[in-house]
Amino acid sequence: MKKSKHLIIHADDAGLCHSENRATMEALKKGIVNSCSIMVNCPWFYEMAEFARENPFYDYGIHLTLTCEWEKYKFGPVLPVSEVSSLVGENGYFYRNRDLLREHAVASEVKKELVAQIERGLRFGINPSHIDSHMYSLGAREDLFDVYKDLGKIYNLPVLLNRELMEMVGLDCNQNLSEEDLVIDKTHYGNFDYFKEGKLKEYYTSVFDNLVDGVNLILIHPAFDDAEMKAITINHPNFGSEWRQIDFDYFTSQECRSILDERNITLINWKDLSK
Q1: How far apart are CA 69 and CA 96, in angstroms?
Q2: What average pLDDT score do residues 85-111 get?
Q3: Among 22, 36, 148, 244, which residue has the least CB neighbours within 10 Å?
Q4: What are the Cα distances from residue 90, in Å, to 76, 81, 82, 96, 182?
Q5: What's the confidence (pLDDT) of residue 120?
Q6: Vertex 220 angle, CA 218 and 224, to 5°
């Protein structure tokens, strides 16, 4: 893997809602997006789990979730709130951001909830290729990151570990990574400035010219800019419905496929990393 440039094009947030599911399913079928991860605690999880059972040849991870960033669309833990009370606010939903999670979460309750999330995915027939972290919230504190890595060992699954994501959440890479860890060499993801300036597509195209030797990962969030997604992402243009439609349109386009072919880029998925 270190001798050439490999790429995973990965869709986060499957299971979040019907719009996200439809877009993720279609993107997987078109073959450029070749990996996704599923939020098992969200209302539309069952639809995505059913798709995964019926289409086991695609690559599915469990998107471990401890935060809910949306203003009016709320979700919380799989376990009863009474068992993981440090993970929720006064109304029983997950906190909106990493800072609140960092302040309140008890590590033992985090592990208990995340085990329940993984077990729910397994119980519904998902055969996960990896686990990753919604909003990379498990990087909020070192002890939570330890839980994250430990779950990979318990379930014998690769865990999304990457220096760019760790730096984004303020976690010291040197203190929290070891030589035995499987680390994604480079993670690429759009930022709000690209979106505001109408240059997300240009950014994604530039990624294909800036891959590093080893394993590269592009994180995207495909969904449709429809009434459902607009309502969920109200007052939240960062990774909002318009952004997610751009992700879907670009990564299902012939333009994107042609660029991949022209650059002779090798697509892999998390299953390949486990071989």
Answers
A1: 4
A2: 97
A3: 22
A4: 12, 10, 12, 12, 38
A5: 98
A6: 155
CB 49 within 8 A of CB 58: no
| Token pair 């919230």 in the structure block, residue | 137
Would residue 264 be called left, alpha or beta, if left means φ above 0 and alpha means ψ between -120 and 50 degrees? left
Distances (CA, A) of 4 to 1, 13, 161, 265, 268: 6, 29, 20, 9, 12
| Ranges assigned E (strand) in 182-274 | 186-188, 214-220, 266-267
pLDDT, tens digit (0-9, with 9 covering 90-100), for 184-212:
999 999 999 999 999 999 999 999 999 99
The neighbour count for residue 156, using CB atoms within 10 Å, is 7
Name the pTM for this structure. 0.96
Q: First and final CA of the chain: distance in angstroms?
A: 12
Kindly provide the b/e burial profile for residues 189-213, where b requires at least 16 CB atoms within 10 angstroms of the residue's own CB: bbeeebbeeeebbebbeebbeebee
User: What is residue 211's DSSP assignment?
Assistant: P
Give the fold, CATH level 3, of 5-273. Answer: TIM Barrel (3.20.20)
Instruction: State the Cα–Cα distance between residues 255 and 263, nearest whole angstrom.
Output: 12
- C-alpha distance from residue 67 to each of 127, 133, 165, 200 (Å): 24, 10, 16, 25
d(CA 185, CA 166): 12
Over 90: is that where the pLDDT of 12 sits? yes
5-14 and 266-267 strand pairing: parallel
Strand partners, 67: 95
